[in-house]
Design a protein that fits this description.
399 residues; 27 strands; Jelly Rolls; 7% helix; 45% strand; Immunoglobulin-like; 10-stranded mixed beta sheet; 2 domains; mainly beta; 8-stranded antiparallel beta sheet; 3 helices
Length: 399
């Protein structure tokens, strides 16, 4: 048996060593306890590409190497981009070997040559083994790199002649630029009555949002900042250039859709510069609220006493009007207006519906535009896809 003082000495030395372990881990005499690493994924932004597929290579990262095999489940989640149209979905488990800190995951993105909005999807991490998740979502942004529009020739069409009527004017939009003999640009935000009288959110440009391709004129509404507005678009008028009184008018177009999107083809009386609105009269042949793409409105506006008045009618269609081309028409006679879509009646108007002087037996000029936001459609929201397009095939006037 050791002497008592020797046992005390040994105990004292052991206590000092243990205290030293707690004070300084690098000198600790006991093995450290290994903690699990954390796992994360970064966002990724790449151009879409024009042919085949583009590899979006994500990096899965550990904050430190581990002596164990780490695994994690990786799945894709649709955003404005959706599988399989825009990318190939994933539902895999990836592993990171002991001593390693990264692994690669590839998502194949479908490339094309057509102009569209920047799109997004997500790569989701879940069900980790031997690790904890620090960043569970990797946002992927597919950046548009195209200038060509996808024009699909489908839908309803009308003839270029009618019995007993002559074609007196048409714009087929077969050129490469706007015909200045027919059209004017309405530029700006509508000030001093800003928002064009409806608290709209777009700034109308002089050609920056207008394109010509495949025999179509294309109006583009974009989400971008310009002159204090958050959106841009185009509004065209034929004021002081082309105006008409009576006849059949055919307007063939493929319209946009989405919350806060407001396409229109309409007319104002030639006396608008002097009489003002609503005394000049307004005929809305086509108006659609983007959040209701199967419902078309036709409306007449006029002055009643000291205020504006209107008669509004609508038609609900079996499918979305944004899916293909349709022909929006007006048959206009003395004391009678009938609007149609694909030769189906939307509305009929006559003097008995107007509680004032009937202004619709005079010359009127054309307006076409995509508005964004405003009192009627409301503002765009997270579901609204940009850019939006209205493709116009032709306008024809028969008398």
């Amino acid at each position: 048996m050791l002497p008592k003082f020797t046992m005390k000495y040994i105990f004292l030395i052991f206590s000092l060593l243990l205290f030293s372990c707690k004070k300084n881990d690098t000198d600790c005499c006991l093995p450290p306890v290994e903690t699990n690493p954390t796992i994360s994924i970064d966002a990724l932004s790449l151009a879409e590409g024009n042919t085949g597929t583009t590899a979006f290579n994500f990096t899965i990262k550990l904050n430190k190497a581990s002596s164990k095999t780490v695994s994690v489940k990786v799945t894709t989640k649709n955003g404005t981009a959706a599988a399989p149209k825009d990318f190939t979905s994933l539902d895999n488990t990836i592993t990171i070997s002991p001593g390693e800190t990264t692994a690669k995951v590839t998502v194949s993105v479908v490339a094309d040559e057509f102009k569209e909005a920047d799109e997004d999807f997500q790569l989701m991490l879940s069900e980790p083994t031997n690790a904890s998740i620090e960043t569970a979502i990797g946002a992927a942004f597919i950046m548009n790199d195209d200038t060509k529009f996808e024009v699909v020739e489908n839908g309803y069409t009308t003839p270029n002649s009618y019995a007993g009527m002559n074609l007196v004017w048409a714009d087929e939009f077969n050129g490469t630029s706007l015909n200045a003999e027919n059209w004017n640009y309405d530029v700006g935000d509508g000030c001093p009555n800003c928002g064009w009288g409806n608290n709209e959110l777009q700034y109308y440009t002089a050609g920056e949002n207008l394109y010509f391709q495949s025999g179509k004129m294309i109006i583009e509404a974009r989400k971008e900042n310009k002159n204090g507005k958050s959106y841009t678009s185009t509004r065209l008028t034929s004021m002081n250039k082309k105006s008409f009184k009576f006849g059949r008018i055919d307007f063939r177009a493929k319209i946009p859709s989405g919350q806060g999107i407001w396409p229109a083809f309409w007319m104002l009386g030639d006396n608008f510069p002097t009489a003002g609105w609503p005394a000049c009269g307004e005929i809305d042949i086509l108006e659609v609220l983007g959040q209701q793409p199967s419902k078309i409105y036709s409306t007449i506006h006029f002055k009643s006493g000291n205020t504006s008045a209107r008669v509004e009618k609508s038609l609900v269609t079996a499918t979305s009007l944004a899916d293909e081309f349709h022909v929006y028409s007006m048959i206009w006679e003395k004391d009678k207006i009938k609007t149609m879509v694909d030769d189906k009646t939307i509305a009929e108007f006559d003097p008995s519906q107007v509680s004032a002087t009937y202004p619709f037996n005079e010359k009127f000029f054309f307006i076409m535009n995509i508005a964004v936001g405003g009192n009627w459609p409301g503002s765009p929201n997270a579901t609204t896809y940009f850019p939006q397009f209205m493709m116009v095939d032709y306008i024809r006037v028969f008398q």
